[in-house]
């Protein structure tokens, strides 16, 4: 594919953040060693920080969030087991069929508005223990919900759905790609969320601004098992401290500032809600994701994307007429105001 000119204002995803000079300096100066022998002090520090943040005994550094999900499922599941999650959850839609390919597990999708399902839905989805039924094995919660508009799971809902799972002997897992967005905005600590899950992880390469990586946390026993699969999947690294240093830097410097991204996203959503032909998809914008529909403009998402790009703005097309704008640390309030103007121009 031909390389596209880099957009001036890139709202495609918070994965498009670039490491800052200060982060790069921390990376350049990182102390390193052999990660596989637990001899990389920077990786060890990052894992200890995340385990502590989540209130878990241990953590493991992995190349991506996808690998965090896949390894967690691989640890929790036997072939033929079932993972219960939201219909739009990342492992169902954007991990190349990982649950079936890697864990030989099937997924059970629950339909929701914001990616937040209820205890009743879980109760209804759990299979009777019958020889011919799959075994309901893992309950997976995505927080914040990506395709659910960046919504935050209320802690009461988490307590309710995980209690049902536990009653039925299931493991509980949180896809916390954007957990720290939920923590900063909602005021519930990562530790509090962590109490309800056997495994949970954060992504470093989204709003935290790192180039790569995710950190998966759980009990010592869980992390021991996760390490076997990290090795098996080829995710065991060597002098990985050079990238873990970005994670340490991000946890020390880029967490509180996520609140700015949320404020910017809300301002942007209010601005574009005024544009004729643009309709916000969710009735709330809690964190850094803004979903909208362009159908009423008479254009489709692909055409709006093309026109925006001609003006140096990039917003992802997420369906025939659905688009998603993401705020992040490389985007200022001024740039968002400009992007809203340009969007208004290209749809009118
Ligand atoms: C991005 C994302 C992932 C996958 O993370 P990668 O680091 O891109 O592999 C998983 N779940 C959710 C909700 C995400 O947004």
End-to-end separation in angstroms reads 31 Å
CATH superfamily of the largest domain: Type I PLP-dependent aspartate aminotransferase-like (Major domain)
CATH architectural grouping of the largest domain: 3-Layer(aba) Sandwich
Mean pLDDT: 97
Secondary structure: number of strands = 13
* Series of secondary-structure elements, N-terminal to C-terminal: EHHEHEHHEHEHEHHEEHHHEEHEEEH
Helix content class:
40-55%
- The CATH C-level class name of the largest domain: Alpha Beta
For the sheet with most strands, the description reads: 7 strands, mixed
Domain tally: 2
Assembly of the depicted chains:
single chain
How many helices in DSSP terms? 14
Measured by DSSP, the beta-strand proportion falls in 15-25%
The helix/strand class is alpha/beta
**Major beta sheet, strand line-up:** 2-8-7-6-5-3-4
User: Over the alpha carbons, how many angstroms does the gyration radius reach?
Assistant: 20 Å
User: Looking at CATH, which topology of the largest domain would you report?
Assistant: Aspartate Aminotransferase, domain 2
Report what the structure shows:
This protein has helices spanning 21-28, 41-54, 65-76, 90-93, 98-103, 119-125, 155-167, 179-186, 190-194, 220-232, 241-253, 258-273, 301-310, 333-347; strands at residues 9-10, 58-62, 81-86, 106-110, 135-142, 171-176, 199-203, 214-218, 279-280, 289-293, 313-314, 316-317, 322-326. It is α/β, with parallel strands linked by helices and 348 residues long. It folds into two domains: 9-16 and 257-347, Aspartate Aminotransferase, domain 1 (Alpha-Beta Complex), CATH 3.90.1150; 31-253, Type I PLP-dependent aspartate aminotransferase-like (Major domain) (Aspartate Aminotransferase, domain 2, 3-Layer(aba) Sandwich), CATH 3.40.640.10. The strands form three sheets. Strands 2-8-7-6-5-3-4 form a seven-stranded mixed sheet, sandwiched between helices. The protein has a four-stranded antiparallel sheet with strand order 9-10-13-12. Strands 1-11 form a two-stranded parallel sheet. A hairpin with an 8-residue loop joins strand 9 and strand 10. The longest helix is centred in the C-terminal third of the chain and has 16 residues, at 258-273. The chain is globular, with a radius of gyration of 20 Å. The mean pLDDT is 97. The structure holds pyridoxal-5'-phosphate (PLP). The site of pyridoxal-5'-phosphate has 12 residues, from helix 3.
